Amino acid sequence: MLPLGLSCFVEALHFLKGSDMSMEDSSITVRSENPAKEARKAVNRFSRVVKKCQRELALMKKSLQGLEGESTTAKDLTEFERNLESMLEFVEETMRHMGERLLSSTMMNGDKLKRKEGGQG
User: Fold this and answer.
1) Which partner for 2 in 7, 27, 38, 105 could form a disulfide, CB atoms 3.0-4.6 Å apart?
2) In Å, how far from its chain's centre is CA 33?
3) Please, are residues 8 and 52 in contact by the beta-carbon 8 Å criterion?
4) Residue 87 CB neighbours (<10 A)
């Protein structure tokens, strides 16, 4: 059995590799209703997983510091912390891009609708 913080990290890596199976919830499947909606849900799920991993890693680090000493724990877990931070940056950037695309497509659809209405009147 993996420590809780490490299992969160493994879960996040599974998600990055495209696996739709979570260690906690294997019922997550991608539907073909609305691709943008499903993508947004997936990004939000991944964001929650990464944030949970960060919390669990902090708890694990704190408990290991008392057991092994600060220097060993800090060195060993620094790379995990950096990886989680870069995953969170990726998620935030992806959300920003998705928002821009949605805004752009909404504006384009609005222009098309105005042209249709203007041509009929």
Assistant:
1) 7
2) 21
3) yes
4) 22
Q: What are the mean pLDDT values of the chain's consecutive 10-residue runs (121 residues total)?
A: 55 57 50 80 93 92 78 76 93 92 76 63 45
Name the token pair of 108.
Answer: 């384009």
Tokens of 63: 């408990």
| d(C-alpha 11, C-alpha 53), whole Å | 9
Residue 22's nearest CA partner among 59, 50, 3 is: 50
Which residues, 6 or more positions from 59, have their beta carbon under 8 angstroms from its beta carbon? 4, 5
Half-sphere exposure (Cβ direction) of 57: Cα atoms closer than 13 Å:
23
Angle, CA 26 vertex, CA 5 and CA 10 arms, to 5°: 25
As a whole number of angstroms, the distance between CA 111 and CA 104 comes to 11
* Number of residues written out for the chain: 121
What's phi and psi for 40, nearest 5 deg? -60, -40
Taking the C-alpha atoms of residue 26 and residue 117, their distance in angstroms, rounded to an integer, is 48
In the chain, domain spans: 4-120
